[in-house]
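The data are passed on as follows:
___
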Amino acid sequence: MTAALLLAEPEPAIRGYLERQLQSDGFHVLQAAFGGEALALAERTRPDLVLCSELELCARLRQGEPGRTWNRDVPVIVLGPAEGDAVDRVRAFQRGADDYLHRPVVYDELVARIRAVLRRVAPPAQQRLEVGGLVIDLPARVVTVRGEPVHLAGKEFELLAALAAEPKRVFTKDELLRDVWGYRSFTSKRYLYPTTRKGS
């Protein structure tokens, strides 16, 4: 599954460079120039990790806000200023950062830190999902309902597995497009089709 990174960076040149390089390394990148825009994206798309340069944004992500529903436990890596020191690093961790890098950022180190943080927070891989009478054997890609086998196409299986993994959560269209269909950008389509339809 492609990890979605929310890149909150006010400098367009740096934002564009990091987006290009991270996409080349297989990440899905969502861009935001300012804190308010980043929070709206975090709420709408539920990224796997946030890269940001503002300690205030990190703190707001952790604290949450009334009526807002982003994931307050989302991993955050802070990209600190070039003149930053140990005090800045400590302040970032106090505001909830999972990691901290000084600028100028060495890109290879950044990617290594991103992957290390994602490994730390990744839940253990499940082999079997059970929801009511539904049983999904993930390695074998076998689905049964009350003991009866159900035959599904590839995307149908992946969609069912994604929904069954968190049966009490409401998924957004953008999350399913990203995680099941692997879309790198969001479209205006209102419907999700598990299989390709003739003539579409």
